[in-house]
Predict the structure.
Amino acid sequence: MTSELRPITSKLGATPRLNALASYVPKATRVFVDVGTNHAILPILVARRTHAKLSIGIDRSLQALQEAERRVRRSHCARRIELRSGDGLAGLAPNEIEVICLAGLAPINMVKILTVGLAVMHGHAVRLLLHPLGGSEQPRAFLAANGFELVTDTTVMSRGRECTLLVADRPA
């Protein structure tokens, strides 16, 4: 085993923002989805901290997915994490809709992804974990217009920046 492939233990690279987002994933979650997963740090955190049977990381960038694959292999959580190339919620099956995170996206892009994803969310209880970059008015309006109850609205300091985190639930 080369030093480059040492197992990831405590030095995952999780920021206060990612730790906070992971803390809002209920322990009994079956499926967690991270849209725009980048390096898959959040799916790894969720796999380690909850009983989620599956954490799905989705990203459009093949380069990001390659790095994510390397991290997942080193995390000792590979059996519970699946990485997918894709855009938004389009590649998800209805039984994969439970807890969905969109973090670090522009508000307009976040709302576009969620609007397109409404069809796959229909009829399912859903928890959304949102961290919009550059303002939260548009995501808040989306939540209100689509039957989501805002259960947490907080700010976390991460890497010298204030990060707004919104957690919203919608019953089936």
Q: What stands out?
A: Strands lie at 31-35, 54-59, 81-85, 99-105, 126-132, 149-158, 161-170. DSSP finds five helices and seven strands in the chain.
